[in-house]
Specification:
There is one protein chain. The protein is of the alpha/beta class. It folds into two domains: about 1-215 and about 315-360, TIM Barrel, CATH 3.20.20; about 225-305, no CATH class. It is about 40% helix and about 15% strand. It is built from 14 helices and 13 strands. The strands form three sheets. Strands 1-2-3-5-8-9-10-13 form an eight-stranded parallel beta barrel, surrounded by five helices. α2 links the parallel β2 (about 25-30) and β3. α6 crosses α7.
């Protein structure tokens, strides 16, 4: 089992990655969302020059905001700074697109995006279509090492729906998910395997699976209603709430997508959204405020014990170790924590001290 951290890219907070390296974490996923954080590649460049061991990559880079050749060149530039310890997480853009009031990239377009990026990073010439014109492109000046293609860069895809999962099976080296329980991952891993098979590819045994969540190590007597627990898990739980709301809305307000742990607060959350000060067409700016950085004060009441228990890894050390072992048995190879910025060092330190040693 490997362990990673999720990083809300901040150009002056790159040293959280060095801190995670010192604690023994294996991988740092740096978020890419242009309206809410610093640039992920600039942040990664600073981290790459100031770390020695930890794997560094995007968590995830957004296909809808960066054309494929730019993404390939950006991550290959980071690979020149940290040869052999760089990866590329890719997604269609849940937050990065929605914070501009736009929809994520469609799966068919995303599949072709993966084809172009993978081909370029493999040093190949590929057909690329831009504004209706298709041309064959490739990296030039390879001998001058502007980019590093010699050390292979794995691609990890964030995917949920069947078609996106099949695209991951066709092109990716791994998969990122926010639902890591075995009953959730098993059917999704099957879709990934189907995608690989349909493309004539054998899914490698080393295909990576990463579960992104957050954690809170409980002490005897702690309750899930305690302020400390809310502070350490609230930004993650609210992020999941916002995601479910967007999916619910996209599916015609289909209540079937609401998970059990949000059903009790759902009417109140809808009233909360309806009361936002911006007009409906601009409301996305308030819905996603604080995304993975802090819990909006007005949303504290939605962070219920059921939601915390379902969304995050919470428990005393032995319980957390047992939980991670269940995830591992179900096919998860990495657990990554994305804590709120103001408490990230404590969350990472607690998990490194009380949970990770059982897997080393």
């Amino acid at each position: 089992m490997e362990f990673g951290i999720g990083v809300s890219a901040h150009i002056t907070n790159w040293d959280i990655i060095r801190y995670a390296e010192e604690l023994g974490y294996d991988r740092a996923w740096v978020g890419d969302s242009q309206m809410i954080w610093s640039d992920c590649y600039a942040t990664m460049a600073l981290a790459a020059q100031n770390t020695k061991r930890i794997q560094i990559g995007t968590g995830v880079s957004i296909a809808g905001t960066r054309i494929a050749p730019v993404t390939a060149h950006s991550i290959a530039s980071i690979n020149a700074l940290a040869p052999g310890r760089v990866f590329l997480g890719l997604g269609t853009g849940h937050t990065a697109m929605r914070v501009m009031g736009q929809d994520p990239m469609r799966v068919g377009e995303f599949r072709d995006y993966l084809r172009v990026v993978r081909g370029l990073l493999d040093g190949k010439a590929v057909d690329y279509t831009y504004r209706g014109q298709t041309r064959e492109i490739e990296f030039l000046h390879r001998e001058r090492k502007f980019v590093n293609l010699d050390n292979r860069i794995p691609i990890y895809v964030a995917a949920n729906g069947p078609k996106a999962l099949e695209a991951a099976g066709q092109y990716a080296d791994g998969w990122i998910t926010v639902g890591g329980e075995p009953e959730v991952t098993a059917p999704k891993l099957a879709h990934i395997a189907d995608g690989a098979r349909k493309s004539g590819r054998d899914l490698p045994a080393e295909f990576h699976t990463a579960f992104i969540t957050t954690s809170c190590v409980l002490r005897p007597g702690d309750e899930l209603t305690d302020e400390r627990i809310i502070a350490e898990t609230g930004s993650w739980v609210s992020c999941e709430l916002h995601f479910i709301y967007e999916v619910w809305k996209d599916m015609g307000c289909n209540d079937a997508v609401i998970p059990p742990y949000f059903r009790g607060i759902w009417p109140e959350y809808l009233a909360h959204v309806a009361a936002m000060t911006l007009p409906e067409a601009a409301r996305f700016r308030q819905i996603h405020d604080g995304h993975l950085v802090y819990l909006q004060p007005g949303e504290r009441r939605f962070i219920t014990p059921d939601a915390i228990r379902a969304s995050a890894l919470v428990g005393e050390p032995d319980e957390l170790v047992a939980h991670v072992r269940r995830l591992e048995a179900g096919g998860i190879k990495e657990v990554t924590l994305w804590p709120p910025m103001d408490g990230e060092r404590k969350v990472l330190r607690d998990f490194a001290e009380f949970v990770m040693p059982a897997f080393r």
